[in-house]
Design brief:
Oligomer: heterodimer
CATH class of the largest domain in chain B: Alpha Beta
Strand content of chain A: under 5%
Number of domains of chain A: 1
Number of strands of chain A: 0
Largest sheet of chain A: none
Order of helices and strands of chain B: HHHEHHEEHEEHEEHEEEEHEEH
Structural class of chain B: alpha+beta
Helix content of chain B: 10-25%
Number of domains of chain B: 2
Shape of chain A: globular
Order of helices and strands of chain A: HHHHHHHHHH
CATH topology of the largest domain in chain B: Sulfite Oxidase, Chain A, domain 2
Chain lengths: ~200, ~325
């Protein structure tokens, strides 16, 4: 009706800008909060919470992209690389805030945290696994790595297990978040297992 | 497309200004004028309307007046752990106004010669109030410096005459699910009501305070109105809020956090930089207000800096074992 007719590539670009801006907006709000000092008396906690929360939300989006596309809603699938990179971005911010406020960039304290606190170790391991995925996310790398690329990027499944463990081991008296993300990520992983089982079964029949 | 409404819209009850906010409108206007509205989201509810000024004298005991800069009132009343109202730090300021604190009474029972009840009026008028500026160290590695108003717990306990067998004091917080949304969360694993405890000698120590106010006025609900414990050398969760029951026992009482995770939260929970929480270090604390680029990390002190006054309570005890 009133919608202007756009040629497909231009519409695509418009969507790209919309999704890009949406993913960036939590970061803008966080920066605004820091600059305008509206994060309350203990910004450390707020920043850790928000960066971590957005990272795991994007992880859910990334893993939901494929089943959604299978069910006839390919919008997420088209932008899954962007979601993945943003997830890495928020995870990196999460780590930087941790280094700044909790560790004070002290190597001895960092080592102690890594070795003695399982949730820190698990979180850090998740970031380490994400780094090569972010580095090989370009089309060029994808072409060069060929079959390896798919295998490598399955690491995101391991990352989601680590992410749920991280949230679970962090919870103190309310396991609501751990349950929520456990169910979301768990069912997205189970869907993949089911797909994998279904195919050979169908071939055999 | 333009939507037209064909009937006169009804006013939703959610749009009607709550009475507490209405009664408090002058303060809201003042706060808005001072430009503080923009910076604190839960301000509407956090400014409880009827905080009464208290009359008190400055505390003069050893350790009664910490010299550090005070944590601003706004921070001390907007950043709280009071899980009965939710686990976010801003939840208590937002939802604790739902708790009815008048009428209020505290039942004192167990191994005492004169068991009975204390009404809030008796508490506010029956004890000599003094101001104590204490460092307050949360187990989560942040800390504040708060000017409490209160009286020694010992004064209260002596009125009920603990018997010779009494060795521990067990406390309970109000448990009223209708007014406490956090207790209704089905993913919460705390077994309500919230319970805490002290050894009798800890409870009788002159630094152990029954607080009824802070910053010169009665306690805001989110800080544990109408009366709460403050034990400055222990982690904050020992300083139980909104107390309705005090029971003297001969057995060490089970505390809520111990029942939840005994390996993480001990009965004593004395502040100790050498004994880490299994999941984080206790060597440093963020003295609030903190900021991203100036985190204000300060080293944590043994017994939160009250070792001169309280270390003798624990002579010969292995503080790593009795954490």
């Amino acid at each position: 009706m009133g919608v202007p007719v756009l040629r497909a590539p231009r519409l695509e670009r418009l969507w790209w800008v919309v999704v890009f801006t949406l993913c960036l907006s939590p970061f803008c709000l966080i920066v605004y909060g820091v600059v305008a000092n509206t994060l309350g008396p203990d910004p450390a906690e707020v920043l850790m919470h928000q960066t971590g929360e957005w990272a795991i939300r994007l992880l859910v989006v990334v893993l939901a992209a494929r089943p959604m596309a299978r069910w006839g809603w390919p919008a997420l699938f088209r932008f899954r690389r962007m979601f993945g990179l943003y997830m890495f971005f928020y995870t990196t911010l999460h780590l930087l805030v941790f280094a700044q406020v909790y560790v004070g960039w002290d190597v001895a304290i960092l080592l102690e945290e890594l070795l003695e606190r399982p949730y820190v170790m698990v979180g850090f391991a998740g970031w380490v696994l994400l780094a090569p995925l972010a580095l090989t996310s370009s089309d060029g790398m994808r072409r060069r790595l060929r079959q390896r690329w798919r295998q490598l990027h399955r690491l995101v499944y391991a990352v989601s297990v680590l992410a749920v463990l991280h949230v679970l081991w962090l919870s103190r008296s309310d396991i609501g978040d751990a349950v929520l993300y456990g169910i979301l990520l768990g069912s997205l992983l189970l869907w993949r297992l089911w797909q994998k089982w279904k195919r050979p079964l169908a071939a055999r029949l | 497309m333009i939507r037209r409404t064909r009937h006169v819209p009804q006013i939703a009850s959610s749009e009607i200004t709550p009475e507490t906010v209405w009664l408090n409108r002058r303060n809201l206007i003042k706060a808005a004028a001072a430009g503080t509205m923009a910076t604190t989201l839960p301000t509407l509810a956090s400014q409880t309307p009827d905080l009464k000024p208290l009359s008190y004298v400055p505390g003069e005991c050893d350790g009664c007046a910490a010299e550090e800069a005070l944590t601003p009132l706004e921070d001390a009343t907007s950043y709280n752990n009071f899980y009965e109202f939710g686990t976010d730090k801003s939840d208590p300021a937002e939802y604790a106004h739902n708790m009815t604190i008048d009428p209020w009474s505290v039942e004192v029972s167990g191994l005492v010669n004169k068991p009975g009840k204390l009404n809030l009026e008796d508490v506010l008028s029956g004890f000599d109030l003094e101001e104590r500026v204490y460092r307050f160290r949360c187990v989560e590695a942040w800390s504040m410096v708060v000017p409490w108003i209160g009286f020694p717990l010992a004064d209260l306990l002596q009125r009920f005459e603990p018997t010779a067998d009494a060795r521990y004091v067990a406390f309970k917080t109000l448990y009223r699910p209708k007014e406490m949304r956090g207790t209704r969360s089905f993913t919460s694993v705390i077994d309500w009501p919230y319970r805490e405890g002290l050894r009798l000698d800890e409870a009788m120590h002159p630094l152990t305070l029954m607080a009824v106010g802070l910053y010169g006025k009665t306690l805001p609900n989110q800080n544990g109105a109408p009366l709460r414990l403050v034990v400055p050398w222990k982690y904050g969760f020992k300083s139980i809020k909104s107390i309705v029951s005090i029971e003297l026992t001969d057995q060490q009482p089970k505390t809520s956090w111990q029942e939840l995770a005994a390996q993480e939260y001990g009965f004593f929970s004395n502040v100790n930089p050498e004994v880490d929480h299994p999941r984080w270090s206790q060597r440093y604390e963020r003295r609030l207000p903190s900021s991203l680029f100036k985190p204000n990390r300060v080293p944590t002190q043994l017994f939160n800096g009250y070792a001169d006054q309280v270390a003798s309570l624990y002579t010969g005890m292995d503080l790593k074992k009795y954490y």
